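This entry is listed below:
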Amino acid sequence: MDLDIQCEEMSPSRWAELLTTMKSCKTIRLDDCNLSSSNCEDLSSIINTNPSLTELKLNNNELGDKGVEYLCKGLLTPSCSLQKLWLQNCNLTSDSCETLRSVLSAQPSLTELHVGDNRLGTNGVKVLCQGIMNPSCKLQKLQLEYCELTADIVEALNAALQSKPTLKELSLSNNTLGDTAIKQLCQGLMEASCNLELLHLENCGITSDSCMEISAVLRNKSSLMDLSVGDNKIGDSGLALLCQGMMHPSCKIQKLWLWDCDLTSASCKDLSTLISTKETLTEISLIDNNLRDSGMEMLCQALKDPRSKLQELWLRECGLTTACCKAVSSALSTNKHLKVLHIGENKLRDAGVELLCEGLMHPNCNIQSLWLGNCDLTARCCATLATAMVTKQCLTELDLSCNPLEDEGIRKILEALRKPSCNLQQLILYDILWSAEVDDELRAMEESKPELKIVS
C-alpha cells in the first residue's frame, strides 16, 4: 500500500486520519504538505512501528533540524527497514548532518539519501561522509544538489568513494566546485574501489580545463554509464576531450547530458562520431546549444548509421530552422531505435513540421514522444500532424505548446483523437488560445477517452 499526497495543507483531523493509514504503508510521500517538526514526531513513531515502510518522501516541507532529529530517532530503531529517504528543501543546516551521520553509521537498510536544496555546507557534508565510511553503511545513492558546497568538500568525498564500493550514484550539481576540485574528484573516481555509475555535475563551474581528467575517468571506468555536465562552459574544445574518453572501448556510457555547454556546430562532428559508433549510448541532451542547421544535419547523418542505438535526443532551443527538417525526416525514416525527440523552441514552422511528419509516418520510425512546443506552428500544419497521430500508433505523447494553433488547429487535432487508431496518451497544449466551445470539446474528449491526458 502506498500513500502519495502532494501540495495539501494538513489540518489536525486530516493528519490523524493519515497516521492510521501510514501504519501499513510501504511508501509514504508527503511533498509540499506544510509539515513541521511536530509532524516528524508522529512520523518517527510510524518508522519505528511499521517494518514494511521502505520509502519516505518529505520534500519541500519546513521540517528544520529539529524535525530531522525526531525522524532519526525512528530511523535508529532496530525495527526500521527504511531504504529511501527524501528530505530535499526541508530547511536543514549542518546541524542535521551529525544526526544523519548516526543513521548512516548504524542503519544498513538505508540505500538512498536525498538532501539537496538544503544549506548543509561543506562542513556538514564532511560529517555525512564520516557516516558513509562506516562499514555498516550500505548507501548506494547520494544527492547533494544546491547544498552550498565548495572545493574543500572533495577530499572527504574521495575518501567516501574509495571506502564505499556500494555507492553507485552521486549528484553534486549546482555547487561551486570549479576545475581544480573536479580534477581532484576525478582522481578519487579513478580508484579501483570506486564503482560509480551515475555522476551529475551540472552548474559546477567546469570549463574545458578539467575535461581531460573527466575524459580519463570515462576511458578507465566502465561502471560510469550516466554523466551530466550541463550548464558548464566546456565549449567545443572541452566536448572534443570528453568524446575521446567516451570513444574508448572500455567506456559504457548510456546517458549524456550536455545542455547549455556553449557548444556550436563545430562540436557536431565529434558528437556524430559518438552517436554513430557508441552502441551503448541511448540518451543525449544538447538543449540550449547553438548547433544550428549545419550541426543538425551532421547529427542526422549519424542517426542513419546502423550502429546508432540512440533512443532519446533532446534538441530544444538549438537554433534550428525549417532548413534542417528534411535531414531530420530522413533520419526518422531510417532510425528504428529513436523513441523520444524533443525539438521544441526552434523555428521549424509549418513547412518544417510537414517534412518531419513524412519521416514520422515511415514504417521504420518508432517515435513515441515528440515535443514541438514554440516552433512557430499554425493551424496550417495540423492536418498533417493529425494524419501522423492516426497513422503512427506508437506515438503516445505530443507537445504543441506555445504555438498559435487557434480553434482551427485544435479542432483538426481533436478529429485525430476521435479516431480509434490514435493511441495518444498525453497531449500538451500550454499557452494556446482557443474559444470556450473548443475548451468544452477538449474536456469532452478527455471524458470519452480516460487513457488520454490533455495538459493545458
The CA atoms of residues 22 and 329 lie 51 Å apart. The chain has a mean pLDDT of 97. Residues 1-148 form a domain with the Leucine-rich repeat, LRR (right-handed beta-alpha superhelix) fold (CATH 3.80.10.10). DSSP finds 16 helices and 17 strands in the chain.
